[in-house]
């Protein structure tokens, strides 16, 4: 990249972040909102890029509740939403996948939002928890208003959102239903696809609600993507009651329904990404047909996790009418043996055996052959044994191959996986307490997008990720010219469409596997009221060996000179944020006796090579 181009990008980032006092205090003032609506993404080959052509990496976690009967994120009955979102962002999660039900969006679309049944502890009438969820008269807002409040707060913390249609109705086990619409034989109970007033969730209702909400958020880039349906599934022998992937126009043909819905969504919101999950089973070849009985001796179907089977993409990819494949992201789900003992775990499995037995032909080929980006929408599970081994192997494979992902999940009340949180509570005297599972978070943390210096990278161009100086914005990152665990920084061109070395294409499997995923628990766990110290990872500021000796340009005294020092100095100059004595001394790079905007510009030039040494004479 040419120096002038670097300088232009850096100055642009500096202008965005430092042109006003509010902008200069991005890490401090959570009321400062980025409303530029310029954080939309697009796909080229297997990678995602921002508006400037810079590669980005979606690395986050799931937080369910809007899909359930409570009609709100779980645990907001126990903690303040600002406390939860701030610790999420400070832990480096740059995107949250938020499950929701078609029923809830249908109630919003019709102007009769479903009520929220639980958002604060002990039914406290004073609303000491989440006062923003009440109107001026102290009345609880409806579920759509509360959702909007949460989305605005996500923006404040630099967090992006993927909205996931998790179930047809507001049901704590609604994800067990095979299809996105009511079918009398689609598994589970009818209440999972028929609303309390008797309205059946049809394909038309499913599509209409998605088009409606995509239009509602068309000018707000908080929700950057829509996951059209969580885990379409069902076994081949179930026929029309199961989701399939082929070239037909049958109602249960998932790619046909997804394309039809996505085309309609793009008419009202052409900017958002469309996430398309897999199915459960795929017909092996043309000698078999969907709906025929299963067979142990000559199985007609390839097995897969719910939502995990994407073999059909090779022959039947989804191409949208207006944008082709530039907004399509395929999103398999993958789990370990603690969720279900699949056949590919019946050995001392390795990355290569997992590729040979399941991963490659099921979903990994899409990334390896540059067909489209992948987003592992759900992965995770309990620690220990083979399940932890599997999590570590998948994590490392995603990092090595730049695969986007969200961990399942933040919630503690997922029965088959557990969560990243271990306890939640609130007391008026001490506020929220949120305790993280340090061991599980430590495993997942290695797959978060971060700089070589350990700063987490957000997806917002103006808003840094978090408030405790643990994260930066994507604009800050690319303006700094730094490196990260994603291609060492800078723009990344798509690779040649070939199988990467070390990713041997496997032979097909022959043994079908049971793939039933257990339901999440429906009863909220008992929350703690005892204050618990949060485990937000601190940023250590080393003490200088000699406080009287300047390390010019190192305004935040972290031992290096970077764009972060420029931003900190501008926050001092524009908004009065105090610097340490060492930082003040280091900031005066032209030795005129005090830090000024000229020093900020000289430090910026130093980070991109236009100034070679300090002090500036």
Key structural traits:
three-stranded antiparallel sheet; eight-stranded parallel sheet; 26% helix; disordered N terminus; 617 residues; alpha/beta
Structure described in brief:
The protein has 617 residues and is an alpha/beta fold.
Structure description:
The chain has 617 residues and is α/β, with parallel strands linked by helices. It contains 14 helices and 17 strands. The protein has an 8-stranded parallel sheet with strand order 11-8-7-6-5-4-13-12. A 3-stranded antiparallel sheet has the order 1-2-3, with no helix packed on it. Helix 6 links the parallel strand 6 (160-167) and strand 7 (223-227). Helix 4 (102-109) crosses helix 6 (203-216). The radius of gyration is 25 Å and the shape is globular.
């Amino acid at each position: 990249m040419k120096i002038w181009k670097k300088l232009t990008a850096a100055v642009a980032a500096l202008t965005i972040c430092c042109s006003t006092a509010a902008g200069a205090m991005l890490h401090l003032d959570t009321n400062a909102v980025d409303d530029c609506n310029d954080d939309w993404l697009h796909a080229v080959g297997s990678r995602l890029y921002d508006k400037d052509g810079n590669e980005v990496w979606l690395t986050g976690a799931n937080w369910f509740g809007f899909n359930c009967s409570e009609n709100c994120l779980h645990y907001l009955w126990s903690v303040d939403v600002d406390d939860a979102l701030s610790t999420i962002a400070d832990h480096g999660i740059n995107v949250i996948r938020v499950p929701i039900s078609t029923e809830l969006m249908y109630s919003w679309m019709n102007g009769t939002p479903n009520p929220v049944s639980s958002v604060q502890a002990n039914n406290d009438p004073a609303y000491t928890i989440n006062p923003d969820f009440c109107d001026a008269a102290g009345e609880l807002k409806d579920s759509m208003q509360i959702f909007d409040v949460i989305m605005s707060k996500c923006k404040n913390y630099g967090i992006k959102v993927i909205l996931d249609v998790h179930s047809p109705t507001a049901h704590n086990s609604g994800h067990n239903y095979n299809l996105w619409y009511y079918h009398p034989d689609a598994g589970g109970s009818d209440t999972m696809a028929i609303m309390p007033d008797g309205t059946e969730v049809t394909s038309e209702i499913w599509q209409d609600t998605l088009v409606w909400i995509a239009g509602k958020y068309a000018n707000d880039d908080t929700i950057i993507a829509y996951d059209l349906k969580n885990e379409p599934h069902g076994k081949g022998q179930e026929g029309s009651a199961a989701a399939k992937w082929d070239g037909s126009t049958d109602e249960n043909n998932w790619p046909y329904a997804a394309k039809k819905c996505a085309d309609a969504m793009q008419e009202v919101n052409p900017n958002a990404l469309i996430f398309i999950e897999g199915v459960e089973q795929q017909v092996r070849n043309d000698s078999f047909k969907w709906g025929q009985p299963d067979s142990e001796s000559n199985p007609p179907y390839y097995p897969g996790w719910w939502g995990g089977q994407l073999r059909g993409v090779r022959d039947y990819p989804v191409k949208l009418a207006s944008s082709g494949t530039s907004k399509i992201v395929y999103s398999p789900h993958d789990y370990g043996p603690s969720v279900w003992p699949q056949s590919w775990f019946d050995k001392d499995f390795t990355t290569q055996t997992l590729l040979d037995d399941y991963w490659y032909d099921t979903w990994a080929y899409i990334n390896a052959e540059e067909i489209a980006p992948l987003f592992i929408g759900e992965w995770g599970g309990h620690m220990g044994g083979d399940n932890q081994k599997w999590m570590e192997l998948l994590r490392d494979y995603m990092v090595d191959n730049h695969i986007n992902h969200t961990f399942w999940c933040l919630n503690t009340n997922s029965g088959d996986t557990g969560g990243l949180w271990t306890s939640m509570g609130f007391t008026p005297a001490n506020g929220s307490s949120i305790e993280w599972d340090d061991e599980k978070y430590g495993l997942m943390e290695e797959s978060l997008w971060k700089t070589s210096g350990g700063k987490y990278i957000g997806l917002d161009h103006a808003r840094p990720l978090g408030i405790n100086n643990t994260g930066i914005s994507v604009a800050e990152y690319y303006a700094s010219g730094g490196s990260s665990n994603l291609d060492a920084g800078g723009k990344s061109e798509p690779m040649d469409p070939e199988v990467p070395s070390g990713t041997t294409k496997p032979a097909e499997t022959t043994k079908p596997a049971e793939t039933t995923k257990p339901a999440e628990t429906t009863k909220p766990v008992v929350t703690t009221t005892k204050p618990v110290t949060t485990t937000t990872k601190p940023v250590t500021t080393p003490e200088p060996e000699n406080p009287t000796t300047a390390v010019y340009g190192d305004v935040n005294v972290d031992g290096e000179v970077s764009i972060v020092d420029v931003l900190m100095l501008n926050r001092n100059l524009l908004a009065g944020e105090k610097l340490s004595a060492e930082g003040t001394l280091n900031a005066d790079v032209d030795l005129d006796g005090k830090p000024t905007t000229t020093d900020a510009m000289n430090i910026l030039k130093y980070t991109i090579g236009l100034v070679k040494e300090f002090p500036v004479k």
